[in-house]
Each structure stands twice: as C-alpha cells, then as structure tokens.
Amino acid sequence: MEEIVGNSMTTKGASDEDRSGGSLGNAAKPARRYPLVTYNPGVQINNVKSKATSNPRWRRVVLKISGAALACTGPNNIDPKIVGLIAREVAMACRLGVEVAIVVGSRNLFCGGTWITATGLDRTTAYHISMMASVMNSVLLQSSLEKMGVQARLQTGIAVQGVGEPYNRQRATRHLDKGRVVIFGGIGATLGNPLLSSDAAAALRALDINAEAMVKGTNVEGVYDCHSQDSNATFEHITFHELASRGLTTMDTMALNFCEENSIPVVVFNFLEAGNITKALCGEQVGTLIDRTGRGVS
C-alpha cells in the first residue's frame, strides 16, 4: 500500500504519468536534491530580484511539473519547500512578462499504474483517482502563488465546485492576457480523458492556448546521452528526431511527438535547483532544449 499511496519517490524514474512504461528505463540516475530557496509569503514580488534575462525569449509558456518530484519523506507526501520554490520562481517569471500556464502531475499522492499492477483495478478508475490527486496538488500550488501576490486560476475538467472553474479556452487565454497564472488540474489537464498522460495533456494545452514553448520540470538534469561513456552526460540541445535514437528522457513519447508535429520547443530540466524554473520559463539555457534545429552535449 505504501508503494501505491504515499510513495516518497526517492529515485529518478520515468514520467510520473507515462502509460507506456517510460523511455528512461533502467538508465535512471540516482536522485539528487539541491538547496531550496526559502521564502516569506508576506514579501511582495516587487521586492524579489531575479538574475534572469529582462527580455524573455518566450511570451507564453506551459510549465509541466512532475508529481513525483513534489514528494517528500514526511507524512503529507508533498514538500512545502518545493511548492514554495515553484511559486516564487513562477512569480519572478510573471514579473518579467512571461505568461505562465501550469500542469501538475499526481504521483506523489497516487500512482494509478502501480495500483493497477498490484490490484488489477480498472485502468480508467485508477487514472480518474490520479486526476483528482492532481487537482489537490494544483490547489496547493494556487494557494502558494496567491501568497506570493500572483493571481492564479485553476481550471479542470472534473466538476469541483468552489475549488476550480470548468476549462474554457477563451477564459484561459483571457486570464493569461491579464497576467494571471492558469493551472490546469487533473492528469488529463482538463481534457477529461484519464488515459492521457499529463505530459501529453500539457502538450495539447500548449497548442490550445498558443504557447510558444513547453518546459518540463522534473528531478533529472535533462536528456541523457545513451551513447556516451559518461553516464551523466546530458544534451544542451537536441532535435526531436535525434532524441529517438540518442537520448533518454523522462518525457512521455506521445507528448514529444505532438510537440514535434506542431513545432513547439520543449525544455526538460531539474526544477529542484534554485533559479532553474525562472530561467526555463524565460528561455535561458537550462537542462535540455528539444526542437527541430540542433544538438549539443553539456
């Protein structure tokens, strides 16, 4: 039971809602935690200085946060310091003019795949539960953002009166135009399809709201080079085509294919290192950039 509900997820593994079994496989790297930046909820964002560029590369970005990376060893299975770090750095990016939409995973609270394997539970039922767990993560993140002085709206395909509003594309884009952060809760990211991974749903939402990029914050450094003798070698820049043969990533294959077809660049990075979220949202070099143009190893 502990493996299904309340898994602290101490190792780096496949995408937290990847139905295909993950593309990282047995090449997972040991987990590493970075010093986290503490924050005071009473501090106004105007007083927070960012080292990120004052001229962001992208205007509108979808941030996918891995549910597994939110976990802690405490009884609540969500690390408040990590949630605070996300809120602080998203607030910095908003201050710099980036319009941010967020999709949050759920594996820190409930792992549908593990439950199915252990009990034989119906797949759709298990993933519906995961969708509700993702809404719980989203509500916590929304509260943290509002404490930082950032207006945030939660939209979900699951009817949760008094908690979030039903997904509406026009309303979501209007929120973003007004500088609000929009959080798409539920594994299906308001698509209402429990069999769709949160990675794939985030990619679909990126197209839906005309986002210029999708960035995935997880607990790995980026895309690893499976042909390198150095097991820690990661790419700074790689094409979608090369990724299929040279790279190992925690990102869902369906999401990558969708982003490639629609020319949406993807960044995979370690969001546990202070400053990385703001850098990724602003388009600075962090983790691995995946697009149609080039390749490089860090």
Walkthrough of the structure:
This protein has 298 residues and is an alpha/beta fold. It has one domain: Carbamate kinase (3-Layer(aba) Sandwich), CATH 3.40.1160.10. It has eight helices and twelve strands. It has helices spanning 80-95, 112-119, 123-147, 169-177, 198-208, 240-246, 253-261, 276-282; strands at 60-65, 99-104, 152-156, 165-166, 181-185, 213-218, 224-225, 235-239, 247-248, 266-270, 288-291, 296-297. The strands form two sheets. It has a ten-stranded mixed beta sheet with strand order 4-3-5-2-1-6-10-11-8-12, sandwiched between helices. Strands 7-9 form a two-stranded antiparallel sheet. Strand 1 (60-65), helix 1 (80-95) and strand 2 (99-104) form a beta-alpha-beta unit. The longest helix is centred in the middle third of the chain and has 25 residues, at 123-147. The protein starts with 59 loop residues before the first strand and ends with a strand. The relative contact order is 0.18. Mean pLDDT is 78; it is low at 1-52.
- Most strands sheet: 10 strands, mixed
Number of domains: 1
SSE ordering: EHEHHEEHEHEEEHEHEHEE
CATH topology-level fold name: Carbamate kinase
Structural class: alpha/beta
For the largest sheet, list the strands in their spatial order: 4-3-5-2-1-6-10-11-8-12
Distance between the termini: 40 Å
**CATH structural architecture:** 3-Layer(aba) Sandwich
Report the portion of residues in β strands: 15-25%
- Which CATH top level class fits? Alpha Beta
- Give me the number of helical elements: 8
**Overall strand count:** 12
State the helicity in percent bands.
25-40%
Unreliable spans are 1-52
* Rg value: 18 Å
Mean pLDDT level: 78
State the CATH superfamily name: Acetylglutamate kinase-like
Shape: globular
Pathway: Pyrimidine metabolism; CTP biosynthesis via de novo pathway; UDP from UMP (UMPK route): step 1/1
Organism: Brassica cretica (Mustard)
EC number: 2.7.4.22
Protein name: UMP kinase
